[in-house]
Design brief:
Elements lengths: L14 E2 L1 H8 L3 H10 L5 E2 L5 E4 H10 L1
Antiparallel strand pairs: 1-3, 2-3
Length: 65
């Protein structure tokens, strides 16, 4: 008899890099940086220079346009 690890996992959150979002919105990374600084674009900080944007936030912002 073997004991398997539990199969439940935490839900994953889909994210985009700033490069991916810039291409999707056809804007520059500088424009995204301005939006982040102004608080108009929420991000998840993974390190001092590494950020990701949640896809759910992107869709919410795209719907607000």
């Amino acid at each position: 008899m073997t004991l398997d690890a539990p199969t439940t996992t935490a839900p994953t959150r889909e994210t985009l890099t700033l490069e991916q979002l810039a291409a999707r919105w056809q804007v520059s990374r500088r424009d995204l940086a301005r939006r982040i600084k102004d608080g108009r674009l929420p991000v998840v900080r993974l390190g001092p220079r590494t950020v990701r944007v949640l896809v759910a936030d992107v869709k919410r912002l795209e719907g607000a346009r």
